[in-house]
Design a protein that fits this description.
The chain is of the alpha+beta class and about 200 residues long. The protein has 4 helices and 7 strands. Helix content is about 35%, strand content about 20%. The N and C termini lie far apart (about 55 Å). This is Fibronectin type III domain-containing protein. InterPro entries: FN3_dom, FN3_sf, Ig-like_fold.
């Protein structure tokens, strides 16, 4: 039987889900006798969470600067949660009850996954000149994602593999039309691609 572990990566959480998860962890660790001296401190987690929550509320206006600020504060919050997760694992060891009491999620037991499903909610946004932002819902069982793109009318796809379900492409030629698609990478060798999306680059 494998040793129980907690999830130490948070990049698959949607913005609001990350906020809620951080609140759960903060509440679970507060006055938790299993974790007497959290490192980093719960005050540091509270500050990172407050900053992220404030930045998240400001993105409702859709400003690019506010989105950048939100992304930066999210990264800082993820960093605090990651370092705190290492502390939790060090203290709890393989005690599943103690691990669960921290508010962190346990890593699910691995199960064989066959052909991965087609990507859902695949989107392409062109936020700035020469840039394309690709995103999709995380696919269960995917170890990584194969993003592909090409200039419209050409045959060869350019391939970029990412562990995250989002990708930013830069230095694309302005005014050109591009085609984009993505597939999850798992145990099966077969790739099931999303619908292709065409978009002009600013």
């Amino acid at each position: 039987m494998k040793k129980p572990k907690i999830v130490t990566s948070f990049n698959r959480y949607r913005d609001t889900d990350l906020e809620n998860k951080a609140r759960t962890i903060l509440a679970s660790l507060t006055s938790n006798g299993n974790f007497a001296s959290p490192q980093p401190s719960l005050n540091e987690l509270q500050t990172a969470l407050d900053n992220y929550s404030a930045a998240l509320s400001h993105t409702e206006n859709g400003s690019k600067l506010e989105t950048v600020a939100k992304n930066e504060s999210r990264q800082k919050l993820e960093d605090v949660l990651y370092r705190l997760a290492l502390y939790v694992e060090t203290i709890a060891g393989s005690n599943e009850l103690v691990l669960v009491s921290s508010g962190y999620s346990l890593v699910k037991a691995e199960t064989p996954v066959g052909r991965l499903p087609k990507a859902e909610n695949f989107t392409v946004k062109i936020p700035e000149k020469g840039m394309a932002q690709l995103r999709l819902d995380a696919i269960y069982g995917a170890e990584s994602y194969q993003f592909e793109y090409r200039a419209a009318g050409t045959e060869t796809w350019q391939v970029t593999v990412s562990s995250k379900s989002s990708l930013v492409l830069k230095d694309l030629p302005s005014g050109a039309q591009y085609e984009f698609r993505v597939a999850g990478i798992g145990a099966a060798t077969e790739r099931v691609y999303s619908n292709e999306i065409k978009s002009f680059i600013l």
